[in-house]
Amino acid sequence: MKQHIPNTITSFNLFSGCIGVVLAFEGQLINAGYAIIIAAIFDFLDGMAARLLKVNSPVGKELDSLADMISFGFLPSVIVFMMLETNPAIEYGGSWIKYSAFLLAVFSALRLAKFNLDSRQTSIFIGLPTPACALFILSLPHIALSKDPIISAYVQHPVILLALILALSFLLVAEIPLMSLKFKDLQLRTNLHRYILLLVSVILLFLFQLTAIPFIIIFYLVLSLMQYNKLTQEL
Question: Looking at CB atoms within 10 Å, which of 30, 101, 127, 134 has the fewest?
Fold first, then answer.
């Protein structure tokens, strides 16, 4: 029975993503974002369960990617699509712009397919992980609710959203080594950058809640680039 436990947890990840898609199409973008968070928790727990129970399997690996495709690929695309769909400014840029949101789903699929076949990504990531991309997207509706009308208008502007779509799509498949958050041990010397990221993330989330996520993702990218030579040697 224990070999089915991680797959069951993965299925909850997929279930959360499916519910999030429905909520997004209904216009409940904040709640759809919460579905991404719940899916991310299950995504973390299924890997932990597989390691603790020592029950890794090819089926579990494929199921995990399929669940991630919905929760961290398709669902974020729908959130951005609905932000564009309901934006009056889109009339000036052409209705085609809203369909560009699904580039996130396409490049997430490419990212996940590459990850399954790439033996280099055991201790580091190459390209932005799909959960990080999804977390970035879920923060956008929260930022759009900002009391500052300028910030709210900018984050919902079709050109800004299109630029974010293109930038995130590129990062998903870019040959850029990024640090993994998996701790092999708890030593400060070998995990200094991870501890810095966790500390900064906790402080920013405490101060700015979910609107802090884009800054955390950017900080994560900067920290990884600072370790470019070290991470490249691990490939």
Answer: 30
